Amino acid sequence: MSPDFRPSEMIRPQRKLTGISAILLPFTEAGDVDWTALQAHILRTAETGLMPAVNMDTGFLNLIDEPTKLRVLEMTREVLHGAPFCAGAYSADEPGAAWCADEYLRQMELIQQHGGMPVIFQSYGLTGQSSAEIVTAYEQLAAGCDRFLAFELTEDLLPFGKTYDLETYAALLKIPQCVGAKHSSFRREPEWQRLKLRDELRPDFKVYTGNDLAIDMVMYGSDYLLGLSTFGPDYFARRDAYWLAGDARFYELNDWLQYLGMFAFRDPSPAYKHSAAQFLKLRGWIPCDNTCPGSPTRPDSDVPILAEIMRKLDALIA
Ligand SMILES: N[C@@H](CC=O)C(=O)O
Q1: What is the residue-wise DSSP string for the chain?
Q2: Is 184 touching ligand 1 by the criterion CB < 6 Å?
Q3: Model-level pTM greater than 0.80?
Q4: ipTM for the complex?
Q5: Among 26, 56, 82, 138, which is least packed, fewest CB within 10 Å?
């Protein structure tokens, strides 16, 4: 990092944060999607003031089939009655696949028809290209919509994830339809660099932290699009209100949410989705903590630890 780069100078107190929450797709004992619980969680999230994001990693976008994706979009539109939401656009493929703009454009069109803003979920075909080709790919997608979010995902969560070089990121900032980007490298430095670049080149562009291991990146100018917030949109909404008000209670609430994030996203991090299900069951919000077939699980011994964190968080927002 260059010597002129001082994160402490980037802190932006009392800022109104934009929070987007990647909704967990819940499952029943029989292994089917629990549509009732999903509907309730989308609504609960929107009612706290966070924008729901469906069909993301937390929604098992790379594991669910087309009818399920479509039904999630339909349900989200119905339950939100015109309130804004985001949804992942993804073209399922294999290592070595060629870039497939047509399938992305089709998915983006579907999302927009349902009233959502597309989030470009990475794929082998997208990230397997050169930096210049990746920029061209986003430009192609921009021609198909008014607004979209880009998304850089850590390979720790999905093997086709990629963190772009800064030149590529700067090129994304030049695409008018790309109004923001979720950054999930799970590292602070590249996100600080992106914030710096954003401030220089395009201040209205939103850098959404996807760093569940450093949720205080919002203090430095990031907004957020997190999976962790699906565990407790109410906790996050309160934390954000404390930040806006300059209320010292922000810090302890953030500390406990971070403890939850560190625990849930520990190695193997893709199992965080089962941690989310265990936590939502403890909260009484879903009846079953089954996760999507094919997704890794956590041991039952995690449950008492999650319960202790939940009790602390509940006390902090009481
Ligand atoms: N939970 C996120 C992934 C991590 O950043 C998502 O669903 O996209």
Answers
A1: --TT--GGGG--TTPPPPEEEE----B-TTSSB-HHHHHHHHHHHHHTTPEEEESSGGGTTTTS-HHHHHHHHHHHHHHHTT---EEEE-----TTPPP-HHHHHHHHHHHHHTT-EEEE---HHHHTS-HHHHHHHHHHHHTT-S-EEEEEE-TTT-TT--PPPHHHHHHHHT-TTEEEEEEESS-HHHHHHHHHHHHHH-TTSEEEE--TT-GGGGGGT-EEEESGGGG-HHHHHHHHHHHHHT-THHHHHHHHHHHHHHHHTSSSGGGHHHHHHHHHHHTTS-S-----TTS----TTHHHHHHHHHHHHHHHH-
A2: yes
A3: yes
A4: 0.93
A5: 82
